[in-house]
Design a protein that fits this description.
Elements (H helix, E strand, L loop, with lengths): L14 E6 L3 H17 L7 E6 L5 H11 L4 E9 L5 H20 L3 E8 L2 H7 E3 L2 E2 H20 L1
Parallel strand pairs: 1-2, 1-3, 3-4
Antiparallel strand pairs: 5-6
């Protein structure tokens, strides 16, 4: 039996973080977690680009443009969609997730999904460095692992 999996060494990868400004009090913590994780695994600041977009709904459009550029080994999508009293949450979260998945498939490019979809601000804060960890850091680990896995599969 042969097992193939990605490693967490990232010295030679280029990453773009597509970061929503909406709910920035949460998203900035996700970005800090992602950047810290990338740096700890060998990614230098010159290998990282940060692209800010208005909100989570806009992430897929920018991700498509970045994927088509072929300048990056992975993208990390960071945002926070917090349920309110209208169905707006369902539309934004759903379109963001399906758009990112579609682009990753079309371009065979790892796009780590670090977009929180929570019921409350408290849940979002818990996932942005609180008691549930930092999902931005988790997304960075996913991006690194997937880049290495795809490289192994291509070899």
């Amino acid at each position: 039996m042969k097992i193939i999996e990605g490693e967490l060494s990232a010295r030679d990868i280029r990453v773009a973080c597509v970061v929503a400004r909406f709910n920035d009090f949460v998203v900035d913590a996700l970005l800090r977690g992602a950047l810290d994780t990338l740096r700890r695994h060998g990614v230098g600041d010159k290998q990282i680009d940060i692209i800010r977009v208005p909100g989570a709904f806009e992430i897929p459009m920018v991700a498509r443009k970045l994927a088509a550029s072929r300048r990056y080994d992975a993208l990390i999508a960071l945002g926070a969609v917090i349920r309110g009293q209208t169905p707006h949450f369902d539309y934004v979260a759903g379109e963001c997730a399906s758009g990112i998945a579609r682009i990753a498939q079309e371009h065979a490019l790892p796009i780590a999904f670090g977009v929180l979809t929570t019921e409350t601000v408290e849940q979002a804060m818990d996932r942005a460095g609180g008691k549930a960890g930092n999902k931005g850091a988790d997304a960075a680990l996913t991006a690194i692992e997937m880049v290495n896995l795809l490289r192994k599969l291509d070899a």
